[in-house]
Amino acid sequence: MTGDGVEMMPFHNIFNEWYAAQTSKKIRAVWQSKADNGKRVSSSAPFGYRKDPNDKEKWLIDEPAAEVVHKIYALCLAGRGPSQIARQLEKEKILVPSAYYESIGRSHAQKVPANPYCWDQKTVVGILENRQYTGCAVNFKTTTVSYKVHKTIYKPVEEHQIIPNMQEPIVSEEQWLRVQELRKHRRRPTATGRTSLFSGLVYCLDCGAKLHFCAAKSLKRNQEFWRYSNYKDGRETCQIHYIRDVVLENLVFEAISGLADFVKCHETVFLYMLAKKTNAMRQKEHKKLQQTVEQDTNRIAEIDRLIEKVFEQNASGILSDERFSKLLQSYEKEQKALTQDVSDSQKTLQEAKQKVTDLRLLLRTLRAMTDIAELTPTLVNSLIERIEVHNNDKASGHCYVKVVIYFTAVGMINIPTEQEILVMMKEIRENPQDFRFVA
Known about the structure:
about 450 residues, mainly alpha, Hect, E3 ligase catalytic domain fold, 3-stranded mixed β-sheet, 3-stranded antiparallel β-sheet, about 50% helix
C-alpha cells in the first residue's frame, strides 16, 4: 500500500476499533433489553430441554434426556459424588450429551468422545449446578473481559438475574437447593470403599468438629463406628466420642419414624410448634423488609447520579473544590452504608425463603412416607441436616451416648405428649390467624 492508503491507515484502524466497540455495546444493550422484558438471554437449551419448533424462545422437555437429569439428581440425593455418578452412568451405558445429540440428529458444538458413554464429572457438576432445571431462566452468568478480549468471566451468583416460571421444571426448587447444600459437604469413602448413610452429617456436640467413620476389612458391619476425627492424627483436643454406626442408624430411624407419624396425625400442631420455636418472620415484616431493600437500592442508584452531577459542576466551576470534596465524601459514606444494609437485608430474606423451601421438602417427604423398613441415602439426605454426638457419659455411672438430630428446615424437634398436643390445639383454635404457614 502506498500514497494516500498508507497515510489513511491509522484513521481506518481507529474507525474499525470504534465500530467494533459500538457493535459490542449494541449487542450488550439488546441482551439487557431482553432481560429487562423478562426474556432469557441464553440462545441454547441445556441437556434435558429442546427448543419449540414453533417458538424458539420456548423450551420443551426432552423426555429421554430429562430422565438422565432426574437420575443424576437422584444419585446425588442418594449420597453419590460427581465422579461416582459419572462412573454409574458409564456402567449403565447412558450416552453423554454430545453423543445423545448426535444420535437424534440435533445440532451441537460439542465434540463426541471416542467412548460415547464416558461421562466427565465436570459435565455432571454442570447439570447439578444448573438452576434452569427448576423451570427458571438464569441470565448474566458470564461475561467477557471486553470486545477485544473474549475470555469468559464467571460472575458471582448474586449478580445473576433469575426469572421464574420460564419453562416446565425437570427438578423441583427444593430438590435443587438440597443438592447444592449436600455438595458443600465432601463425602469420602473409607479405604475399604464402604461409606455410611450419615457421611458428612455427623459432628462432635462439644467442639463442632466432624466425626470420622471407621471401617476396615477386619471389622464386621455391626462393628463399624464413628469417632472424633482428630483422634486418628493424635491431636486429642477433644474426647473420642465413640458410637457404632448401627446404633446411630437405629436412633435416626426411630427419630424419622416418630416425626413422620407425628406430622401425619398432627401437621397443624407441628407447624404451630415451628412458629413458637423459631419466631418465623411474619408476612408483614417480610414485606416491610422487601420494601426497604427496594427503597435503599433506588437511593444507591440516585446517589450515583448525584455523584456524577457534582463531578460535572466541579469541572465547570459551579462547585468549589472544597464543597465538592465534602459532598463526595458524604455521598460515598451514605452509599457504602446503604449497600451494606441491602446486602444484610437480602441475606435475611434469602434465609427466610430457604427455610420455607426446606420446610416444603421436609413435609413433602414426610407426607409421602408409608411404613419404611429401613433408611435409604435419599431419605437421610432429604430429611437430616446435621447429627451431633456427645461423649460417653461414663462419669455419671451411665454408658449411653447423647445424640442430637437436626432435621432440614426445623432443626431439633421434641415430639410433644398427648396432653401438650391438646393444649396447643386449643391455642390454635383460639388464635388461628397467628399461625399461618406457606408449606
